[in-house]
Amino acid sequence: MSNPPRVTSRPQAGAEGSAQDPSARAALARISSSRISLGRVFRAEGTNFYLLLGTTVFLVGFGLVMVLSSSSVESYLENQGFFGSFLKQSAFALFGIPMMLLVSRLPISFWKWIAPFAMIGSSFLQALVVFTPLGVEVGGNKNWIDLGFVQFQPSELIKVSLVIWLGLIVSRKEDLLDDWKQGLAPILITSGAAIGLVLLGDDLGTTFVLAAMLMGGLFFAGVRLRMLGMLVLAGGVLFGIMAVTSPSRVTRLMTFAGGCEDVAKQMNECWQSTHGDFALANGGILGAGLGNSKAKWSWLPAAHNDYIFAIIGEELGLLGAIVVLLLFVVLAIAFVRIMNSSDDTFIRVATATTMSWMIGQAFMNMGIVLGVFPVFGVPLPLISAGGTALLTTLIGIGIVLSFARHMPEEREALGIPARRGLLGARRPSSRPHESS
Fold first, then answer.
1. Which has fewest Cβ within 10 Å: 117, 129, 293, 299?
2. Cα gap 13→18, rounded to integer Å
C-alpha cells in the first residue's frame, strides 16, 4: 500500500522574491514609514485643539452673518452694493482661517525665536504712525499706517507680538518676578514703550486692551497681587494725566460721568450710545428677527464695527446676546484647558496673554455697548468688521492652537502624565498669590 502524497506549502513567488530582495524590503519599509507619517499628519488632535478651533470658526461664521445684516444699508449708500462690506470681510475670513491653520503647524521653538523681532518690528511700525506722515487718522485716532500699496493698524500687530514676547521674557526671568529691578523692570520698560506708542496715537481702546494683556500675563505668571496693584495704580495715574491733555478724551469721560439724559447731549455727544440703547431695547427677549434692525438704517454709527453687539441684541434679542456671551465663555474655557495641560512657562503665559486679549476685549466691547464703560473704539473679536483686527486675532488663536497641537505629542514622547488642577504652579518653589 502506497503512502499518500504529502502536500507541502511553498511561499508564493512574489513573497519569496520580496523576502530575499534587499531592494524590495527597502521599498516596503519606505511605504510603511510613509503610511506612518501620513497617519501623523492626519492624526486626531486633542479635544482642546478642536474646542478652540471649532469655537473660533463658529464665531467667524456668525460674525460674517451679522456683518452682512448690519452693513447692507450703509454699503448700499456708499455705492458698494448691499454686499460690499460683507464681501470684503469674507475675503479676510477666507484668507485668515487657512492662515490660522498654517500658523498652528509652526513649532513652539519658532515663536520663541521670532518674539524679539516681532516686538521690535511692530513697535517700529507704530512709531512711523505717530511720528511720520505715514500715519493716518481715522475717527479721531491716529492708528493706521499707509504704505501706498496697503493700509493697516500696527497696533494690532503689537497685540500678537506682546503675546509671544511676554511669554518668552517671563519664562527667562521666571525666578526673578518678585524682584522689581531685575525681574519686572525689563518687562515693564519694553511693553510700556510699545503701549505708550499706541497711546500717543490717541487709540485709547487698544491701549486698554494692551494693558489688560500685560496685567493678565503677569497675573497668570505668578506675580504678587500687591505688585500688580501698584502697577494698576500707576497706570491709572498715567491715564488720568493723558486724559486731561486731550479735549476729546475729556469730553468722552465727562459725557460718561454726567449721563445722557439731556436732549442736547443725545443729539451730539451721546448719539451713538443712545441709539445703541434704543437698538437693544427694540430687540427685547427674542429679537426683531435677523435682518430686521432699524438702527442700521443710518441711525447707529459703526453698526457693523464697534457697535455690532447692539445689532445682535436688536435682531436676535436677549437670547442671542446671551449666546454670544456664552461662546466667549467657551473660548475662555478652551484657553484655560490649554494652559492647564502644559508645564512650559512660555506656553502658559503666552496663552494667558492671548486669553486676556480676546476675552478682555470682548467684554470691553459689550460693556461699552451696554453703557458700563465710556465709548472708545474696541471691536468685538472675530465678529466685528475689520480686516486687520480679524487677521491678527486669527493669528493669535493660531499661535495657541500650535501650543495645543504640539503639547500632546511632546508629553507622550516624554512620558509625562496629564496634569490636573486649574493652572498649576509657576515653578516648584513658587508661592500663591498674596492678598496684600
1. 117
2. 8
Please, are residues 319 and 334 in contact by the beta-carbon 8 Å criterion?
no
pLDDT tens-place values along the chain, 436 residues long:
445 444 444 444 444 444 445 565 655 555 444 444 434 443 446 789 999 999 999 999 999 999 999 999 999 888 888 899 999 999 999 999 999 999 999 999 999 999 999 999 999 999 999 998 888 887 767 888 988 888 889 999 999 999 999 999 999 988 888 878 887 888 999 898 999 899 888 888 899 999 999 999 999 988 888 888 998 898 888 877 777 776 767 777 777 776 676 655 566 677 888 889 999 999 999 999 999 999 999 899 989 999 999 999 999 999 999 999 999 999 999 999 999 988 899 999 999 999 999 999 999 999 999 988 888 889 999 999 999 999 999 999 999 999 998 765 444 544 445 444 444 444 444 444 443 3
Give the neighbor-by-neighbor strand order of the sheet with 141-146: 135-138, 141-146, 151-152
Q: Give the angle subtended at the CA of 329 by the CAs of 323 and 335, to the nearest 5°.
A: 145
Cell reading at 205: 481702546
